[in-house]
Write a structure and sequence with these properties.
The complex is a heterodimer of chains A (262) and B (75). Helices cover 45% and strands 24% of the residues of chain A. The longest helix of chain A has 34 residues. In chain A, helix 6 packs across helix 7. Chain A has 262 residues and is an alpha+beta fold. With 75 residues, chain B is mainly α. The longest helix of chain B is centred in the middle third of the chain and has 20 residues. Classes of the chains: A alpha+beta (262), B mainly alpha (75).
Chain lengths: 262, 75
């Protein structure tokens, strides 16, 4: 390394990496990805120019969406390719060290954290599940289930149904939140860990749908089919709620031991 | 990790927002020499500004939308 280059960190694995897993991979700067070993851990890294990836350059470049997208996709591509072969703990985007010695020091310093994260993610894969609600259908469904209790066919039933519709409009948000909680709880029971994130801002997602749940789940590989069918079942159980599954993802959301939630 | 065949194609269709959500706020956070990586909220906020300004460029040229507080860093 020289004063003009830094070391971009992609992921950490245990010592079992054969080496050919990274041969074809090119990284965020188009560089050949390589490995750095220390104490039974292997960091997958690349040498990058500080002109583009130094602190000041990063602060500037991360503001450029085209640049950010290119780098995010390259980073994810290296991590995801690696994850097909071995268990990996992905690093947060833009973790840059000045040289390999510093990378080795970090591996030694955070050995326990990396090891426990690797233990958590081994044999498991991250899946994203988002729930979107259609307010109109949801309101109608809530009204229908309330009015259903009153029987049908009479004028009284009609009035009750009308009243239920109006009440439903008021309570639909509460009902929707309860359904999102139920969906999340059910998905947690089929996964090793799960987290709920803040709903994606509609301005950013470009979607005007109402997001009820932005969850991410760490699922045992031998339960992946079961998880998928639970998602499908939940998606068809509630009228007006649509579930969207994304993945498989490298375990970004479960890389830090402090992120584990039962 | 086991990936089903064909997952690569699927991955290519990932919305950018999903990807950024994970690479900017997920992953293990350690102190690199370039400390942007531990400035958790700053990193997310910087990219959020990039996203917002690109969106506002598309819709209302020349006007920057404000960054919504807590839109992304909360988990």
């Amino acid at each position: 390394m020289t004063d003009t280059t830094g070391v971009w960190m992609y992921a950490v694995t245990d010592g079992t990496l054969a080496g050919d897993e990274t041969e074809a991979a090119s990284g965020v700067a188009g560089e050949q990805v390589r490995t750095v070993h220390e104490g039974g851990l292997t960091a997958v890294v690349g040498t990058v120019p500080l002109d583009d990836f130094g602190e000041a350059a990063l602060a500037r470049n991360l503001e450029d969406l085209d640049w950010l997208e290119k780098v995010a996709r390259a980073h994810d591509s290296v991590v995801a390719d690696l994850a097909r072969h071995v268990s990996v703990v992905p690093l947060r985007l833009a973790t840059v060290c000045l040289d390999d010695a510093r990378v080795r020091a970090l591996l030694a310093e955070h050995r326990e954290q990396f090891s426990s994260a690797l233990t958590l993610v081994t044999g498991r894969t991250e899946w994203g599940v988002k729930a979107f609600a259609d307010r109109k259908t949801l309101t109608a469904a809530v009204a229908e289930s309330d009015a259903g209790k009153a029987g049908s066919g009479s004028g009284t039933a009609y009035l009750l149904r009308r009243r239920a519709q109006l009440a439903a409009q008021e309570s639909v948000e509460r009902d929707a939140a309860a359904r999102a909680d139920e969906i999340h709880d059910r998905l947690l029971r089929t996964s090793a860990a799960g987290r709920r994130g803040a709903p994606t801002d509609p301005a950013l997602s470009g979607s005007h749908e109402w997001m009820l749940l932005n969850g991410t789940y760490l699922v045992d590989d031998d339960r992946a089919d079961e998880f998928r069918s639970v998602v499908e079942e939940l998606g068809s159980r509630f009228p007006g709620i649509r579930l969207e599954m994304s993945g498989p993802w490298p375990p970004y959301s479960f890389a830090g031991a402090e992120r584990i939630s039962p | 990790m086991r990936y089903a065949d064909g997952s690569v194609d699927e991955e290519r269709r990932i919305a950018l927002i999903d990807l950024l959500d994970r690479v900017l706020s997920g992953g293990v956070v350690i102190t690199g020499d370039i400390t942007l990586s531990i400035a958790d909220i700053d990193l997310v906020r910087i990219s959020l500004r990039a996203l917002i300004s690109s969106i506002s460029t598309l819709s209302v040229p020349g006007i920057d939308a404000p960054v919504p507080r807590g839109a992304r860093e909360g988990t």
